[in-house]
Amino acid sequence: MRLRKMFLKIRLVALTLLMMACQADQDFALHDGGSASFGASRDQWTVINYWAVWCAPCRHEIPELNRFAVDYRDEYLLLGVNFDGATGAELSKQIQDLGIEFKNLLEDPRTLWKLDRPDVLPETLIIDGEGQLRHRLVGPQTYESLVGLLKDKVNLGG
Fold first, then answer.
1. For residue 83, which of 63, 42, 53 has the smallest C-alpha distance?
2. pLDDT tens across 50-82, in order?
3. Taking a C-beta distance cutoff of 8 angstroms, is the pair 125, 47 a contact?
4. Phi and psi at residue 5, in whole multiples of 5°?
5. How far apart are the first and last CA of the chain?
6. Euclidean distance between CA atoms 116 and 130, whole angstroms
7. In the prediction, which pLDDT does 77 show?
8. What's the whole-model pTM score?
9. All residues at 6 or more sequence positions from 145 whose CB lies less than 8 Å from its CB, including other chains
């Protein structure tokens, strides 16, 4: 009986550790190599933008995002996600055609925050250095709108 209780405790500990590992920080591959993660404690926040080649507001927003990505590269990591799930040469072509200069993820990380697929594009997520979703922006952003929102992280809970 004593051995059985000990075996049950070991199974419970193993199951708990397995569940914790499933929730651990996950790496997401980037289009041009490398990876990004959203759970590691770090100073840099992440801005994730959802775009599609057929989305006119996305096309207008991309130069603004390119500028933001350069000017704030030390504070924020700007990543794109292709809404249509393009990969390989097709994704490369779309990135080039739209003039996207920021990195793009190969898969959508929104399941980390239990979010459904966007209904409207573009959509932008603001993720803090702990991997927590702080804001969800629907519709096109400008350089000024992003800077204004992110200027005071305290308002976003950061």
1. 53
2. 999 999 999 999 999 999 999 999 999 999 999
3. yes
4. -60, -40
5. 51
6. 21
7. 95
8. 0.81
9. 137
